[in-house]
Design brief:
The chain is α/β, with parallel strands linked by helices and about 280 residues long. It is built from 11 helices and 10 strands. A hairpin with a 7-residue loop joins strand 8 and strand 9. The termini are far apart. The relative contact order is 0.11.
Length: about 280
Amino acid sequence: MIILGATPIGNLGDASGRLREALAAATVIAAEDTRTTKQLLRALGVETQAQFVALHEHNESAAAPVLVERAREEEVLVLTDAGMPTVSDPGFRLVQAAVAAGVGVTCLPGPSAVLTALALSGLPTDRFAFDGFLPRRAGERDRFLTGVAREERTLVLFEAPHRLIESLESFERVMPERRLAVCRELTKRYEEVRRGTAGELLPWARDGVRGEIVVVVEGARPALADLDAAIAQVLLLRQGGMRLKEAAAEVAEATGHARNALYQAALEHPSRASSHGGAGS
């Protein structure tokens, strides 16, 4: 049997009773970093006679078949440095190999940075997607964000503290009106959650941010059938007496289309050719 054990992401008090029991009873512990796992055992006051086996991104493909064979006869407890194995951490290839070989897999639920950040974000939690770490290079990051800009589900991402400013700058370029929640040091003493648009969060980030970072991103609002339909809605509101800038802002809020793009398109629309109103009229 393969047992996936969720470990604390900061606060040791989050270690479950089942995890403590499994640590004490294990005969084989496959750990992302055996030193970190041994430190966890000491911190929890748990003694074990288990054999420790390294299982990390560089050796998982080779180690998985060996561990699966051992799991036919005994329980193999799988741990990462923090959080749930397989979620942006080692363990997936091992589980995949176990499933293919007909070896049982179970899980000891527990701490998850993804779910903790999502719950604290203040953004919709009914539908969400997790996409791991943001790309490191600015061009790749911008392309990634452009690709998910129309995603209506809340998006959860990991980021390193030294790249947070650059990432917020990318958000400001690609989706400036989207609400974000930047969560750092979750469950730890200096836990902090900052909410706002990228532009609103940048001054805080430029003062210096440390610790583990999770970024939660508001999903795109359900769009009208297409951009033409959104422009038509702006023009309809304008005909009803609303100022063009206000109409563009209202439709942008409702559809997820960029406010500036709607305003400019409506301003240049042929139906306004005979209009003598000013730009903000």
